[in-house]
Each structure stands twice: as C-alpha cells, then as structure tokens.
Amino acid sequence: MSNRDDFYKKLKVQLEDTTKFPADYMYKFIVPANGNQVNEVKGLFNNTGAVIKTKNSKTGKYTSVSIVVNLDSANTVIDYYKKAENIKGIISL
C-alpha cells in the first residue's frame, strides 16, 4: 500500500471523527502562476457552489487558491484531493 493510500485512509478517519456532513470544507492549494493550473483547479469545482479565492505570491511565481465548498461526505472531500493531484505542480496544504 502506498503512502498516499495511507494518507487518505487516515484523513477519512479524521474527517469522520471531527466533521458532521454535509459541511463546508476548505481546500488550500498552491500552483505555479505561469500556467493554466489556476483554471484547472477552478474547473474541478465548477457547478458546486464553491467560493474560490486566489492570491498571487509576492514574487508572482505562485498563486494560492482557497476553495470553500459544501460537501456531503469524507469520501467526497478525498475525491477532490485525488482529482487535484493530477494538476501539474500543485501543492495541497
């Protein structure tokens, strides 16, 4: 089993122990500012009612993306993280 699988199993347990779903969940990502990654992150949350805020770093090399979205389960939270992993250069916080 990979470290990623272990991480997601642990996250699921933590979410189920601390959160009553449905609930608002905040994602925070950092992506390179010189590509299309910000739009890719926004695209993950199209038509979900998510509130998305972006902020450029001081140097302009990176953009932080904060997303607040109402989700119905820990599995849904993890599904979005797994989709985001496919975006080049993304860092999940």
Structure commentary:
This protein has a single domain (3-92), classed as ACT domain (Alpha-Beta Plaits, 2-Layer Sandwich), CATH 3.30.70. It is 38% helix and 30% strand. The protein has helices at 3-18, 37-44, 74-84, and strands at residues 23-32, 51-56, 62-71, 91-92. Strand 2 (51-56) and strand 3 (62-71) form a beta hairpin. The protein is globular and about 40 Å long.
Overview features:
single chain, 93 residues, alpha+beta, 3 helices
Brief summary of the model shown:
The protein has 93 residues and is an alpha+beta fold. It is built from 3 helices and 4 strands, in the order αβαββαβ. It is globular, with a radius of gyration of 14 Å.
E-strand count: 4
Low-confidence stretches: none
Identify the strand order in the major beta sheet.
2-3-1-4
* Number of continuous helical runs: 3
Percent of residues in helices comes to: 25-40%
Order of helices and strands: HEHEEHE
What radius of gyration results from the CA coordinates?
14 Å
Q: How is the main sheet built? A: 4 strands, antiparallel
- CATH homolog superfamily: ACT domain
What is the CATH topology? Alpha-Beta Plaits
